[in-house]
Specification:
It is a single chain. By secondary structure, the protein is of the alpha/beta class. The chain has a single domain (2-264), classed as Rossmann fold, CATH 3.40.50. 41% of the residues lie in helices and 14% in strands. The chain contains eight helices and seven strands. The protein has a seven-stranded mixed β-sheet with strand order 1-3-2-4-5-6-7. Helix 4 crosses helix 5 (107-123). The N and C termini lie far apart (39 Å).
């Protein structure tokens, strides 16, 4: 009977992993895991494609949140704690045998940060490196103030999405796409604020030179590790520019490859 339970647990863990994380380019021989967290309203494909062009020593997976892609029929999450618990359940089988790092853009940075805290508090695990992009910390005074969404008009919701900075401006030019996208976007930003907390891993923050995000220096309060900040040309979605995207992927590779080989040997 125990063997049956173990087998069912393994099947359940595998299903959870495949449902929650998208790995388009599995690399069984990779010696480091890079877990990516997408921006508000986004799916997993953009970052999952990094696995094709990034070095062979790194395997890339990207978070797939409820309510999109293959999880389209699932209700959107409205509680960050529920989101993190689901991520951890699916993540533990992925990171149990190899070192790992997190990369998040915009709201994805917040989810990556929260997941890092949960891993440290509950499992004594941390990413080797936390890469965040276009987001300040939840304890910063620059953290976006989110009002009660059910009390806002459509125009006010649009203004909020622009202020929050996680929505491509092209969406606002197409009313049909905007109506379809708003539920996902609102579900993604309806998370609670978090008080300041401390990690031990190294952290790098990327931000666009014309980004609306302020006070990225606040990330220095969140970890005892080394903190680097890189300003790249562009707005909140600066990373969609090929030169910036390549810079980030090369930077991540240079940070992680030495660590991967030191742990491997």
């Amino acid at each position: 009977m125990r063997k049956i339970y173990k087998h069912l647990y393994k099947i359940g863990s595998t299903y959870a992993k495949l449902k929650v994380f998208n790995c388009l380019y599995p690399k069984p021989n990779a010696i480091f895991k890079l877990i990516c967290f997408p921006w508000a309203g986004s799916g997993s494909t953009y970052f999952a494609k990094w696995g094709q062009s990034i070095c062979d020593t790194l395997e890339v997976s990207c978070l797939r949140l409820a309510g999109r892609e293959s999880r389209l029929e699932e209700p959107f999450a409205k509680d960050i704690n529920h989101v993190v618990e689901e991520i951890i359940h699916a993540l533990l089988p992925i990171i149990q045998d190899k070192p790992f790092a997190f990369f998040g853009h915009s709201l994805g940075s917040y989810i990556a940060f929260m997941t890092s805290l949960h891993l440290k508090e509950k499992y004594k695990l941390e990413p080797t490196h936390l890469f965040v992009s276009s987001m300040t910390t939840p304890h910063s005074k620059a953290w976006p103030k989110i009002p009660k969404l059910n009390e806002l008009t459509e125009e006010e919701i649009n203004s909020l999405l622009i202020e929050f900075g996680g929505t491509p401006m092209s969406i606002f030019g197409d009313e049909q796409i905007l109506r379809e996208s708003i539920p996902k976007l609102l579900a993604d930003i309806h998370f609670d604020k978090l008080s300041k907390a401390v990690l031990a891993c190294d952290l790098t923050c990327f931000v666009g030179s014309e980004d609306i995000v302020k006070d990225v220096e606040a990330w220095k309060d969140t970890t005892n590790g080394t903190v680097d900040i890189h300003v790249l040309p562009g707005n909140h979605f600066y990373l969609l520019e090929p030169d910036n995207e390549n810079f980030i992927k090369n930077y991540i590779t240079k940070c992680l490859e030495p660590l991967a080989f030191s742990d491997y040997f």
